[in-house]
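Anyone up for a design puzzle?
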């Protein structure tokens, strides 16, 4: 039996997991094929090693004759196969050169600020010039998804809501409105929203109006597995198209995503999740709720205390209703001061920042210097160890034992250094964030209740101290409220004086 094995897509022949090729192999193993004929060697494959393996080992193993017509290759004629390895090598070079040219074209397009994606993402469509413009129907869904997340709903909850309301999922919507197909298209499940789909949308900078190119790449033309690059290694073009989401909503959602909330057994979302921290150990505090107790008894306790006991930390107990009152009153006070006396407020914040933030920045910079110094020391130690091992001063076992602990320390340093650098950058940005805070305060003129959006808009963290007398109902307890852009405000000197004077 003779089976002709031609490949329609020539450039895909560098891969041997092609469905039809696998079907051919199955027929060969079952003894259904005796001769395989292709137009030339490149139609069998453009991978030198694999092509040679099939021609010289796999086919002969099953008694299959192979013929490449244009290259004059016939495994039954040994003399015609002398140049076959070189032809296979040239075929692989062709793929490598094509891959190199495609990568160069893609990089040039990315550097010019052109979007590399072929499909318009959900929420957008392409105009006549192939530019992204907002699709109002799907764009409204995107805005709602961001609004729901800012209100404290996670991706799974949002996906369930969209599915329940029978909102078409992105792939089915694109197919029905624009006729665009996708590999994951399933017309039998038109409302199949998943948590991963929602999460990817919430983290996609494209909805902010930015184009992020070169986010993914492959190691080589032989390895098609995608690698994701950190944002600093990508080519980002800001304001490349009209934004669907404003910057404030985006920032709120990203802060919400950093402190992912889980649904409680009472089917309630904890609006405080990730914001309330213990003043002594720095851990996030746990909110306790139960059907068996009144809502007025919902309370926070230190996570470390709950897990490891009083030997490590104390409870830092505070009721949720008390925290609601304290935070709401402080947000009203601070935003009112920012609106009514913006110049005095800016001067007051600047004075506090120049002392407190600069001290914190100097502390972080010292920490970063120490980390970098230790990293340089470890590099020198590694060099000496390699040198001693190469010269035979220490055995291989000694080298392995000595280097293992240093390797672990170096890995820990590589994780700490970027975090420390990011913390320093965030603190420096706080120094010049007063104007942004005042602008937000002017927008929020009537604050009646605490919502997840309001908390994420203004609050960075809430630090709860232990009571002066533990477990006392009337003992004084300090709560520090740290705001986005401006840090911990506290009471201004004249406010503190007015509070101290009797009415």
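Challenge accepted. My sequence:
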């Amino acid at each position: 039996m003779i089976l002709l094995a031609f490949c329609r897509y020539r450039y895909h022949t560098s891969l041997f997991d092609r469905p039809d090729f696998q079907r051919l192999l199955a027929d060969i193993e079952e003894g259904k094929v005796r001769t395989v004929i292709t137009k030339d060697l490149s139609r069998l494959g453009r991978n030198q090693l694999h092509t040679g393996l099939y021609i010289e080992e796999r086919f002969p193993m099953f008694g299959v004759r192979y013929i490449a017509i244009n290259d004059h290759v016939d495994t039954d004629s040994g003399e015609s196969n002398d140049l076959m390895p070189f032809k296979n090598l040239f075929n692989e070079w062709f793929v490598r050169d094509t891959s190199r040219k495609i990568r160069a074209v893609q990089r040039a397009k990315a550097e010019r600020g052109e979007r590399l994606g072929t499909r318009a993402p959900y929420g957008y469509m392409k105009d006549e010039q192939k530019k992204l413009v907002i699709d109002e129907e799907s764009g409204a869904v995107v805005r709602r998804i961001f609004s729901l997340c800012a209100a404290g709903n996670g991706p799974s909850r949002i996906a369930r809501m969209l599915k329940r309301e029978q909102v078409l999922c992105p792939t089915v919507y694109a197919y029905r409105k624009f006729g665009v197909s996708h590999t994951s298209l399933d017309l039998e499940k038109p409302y199949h929203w998943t948590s991963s789909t929602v999460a990817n949308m919430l983290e996609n900078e494209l909805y902010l109006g930015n184009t992020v190119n070169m986010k993914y790449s492959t190691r080589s033309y032989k390895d098609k597995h995608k690698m994701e690059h950190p944002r600093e290694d990508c080519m980002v073009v800001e304001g490349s198209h009209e934004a669907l989401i404003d910057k404030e909503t985006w920032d709120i959602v990203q802060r919400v995503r950093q402190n992912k909330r889980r649904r409680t057994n009472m089917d309630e979302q904890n609006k405080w999740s990730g914001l309330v921290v213990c003043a002594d150990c720095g851990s996030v505090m746990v909110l306790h709720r139960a059907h068996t107790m009144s809502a007025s008894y919902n309370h926070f306790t230190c996570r470390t205390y709950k897990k490891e006991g009083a030997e490590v930390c104390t409870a830092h107990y505070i009721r949720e209703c008390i925290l609601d009152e304290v935070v709401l009153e402080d947000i009203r006070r601070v935003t009112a001061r920012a609106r009514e006396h913006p110049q005095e407020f800016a001067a007051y914040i600047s004075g506090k920042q120049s002392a407190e933030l600069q001290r914190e920045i100097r502390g972080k910079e010292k920490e970063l210097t120490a980390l970098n110094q230790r990293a340089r020391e470890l590099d020198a130690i590694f060099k000496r160890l390699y040198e001693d091992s190469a010269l035979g001063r220490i055995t291989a076992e000694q080298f392995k034992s000595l280097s293992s602990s240093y390797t672990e320390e170096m890995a820990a340093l590589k994780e700490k250094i970027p975090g420390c650098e990011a913390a320093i950058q965030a603190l420096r940005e706080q120094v010049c964030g007063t104007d942004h805070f005042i602008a937000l305060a002017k927008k929020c003129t009537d604050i009646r209740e605490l919502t997840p959006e309001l908390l994420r808009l203004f609050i960075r963290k809430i630090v709860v101290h232990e009571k002066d007398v533990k477990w006392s109902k009337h003992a004084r307890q300090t709560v520090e409220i740290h705001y986005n852009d401006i840090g911990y405000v506290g009471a201004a000197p004249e406010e503190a004086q007015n509070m101290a004077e009797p009415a």
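A detail worth pointing out: The longest helix spans residues 342-390.
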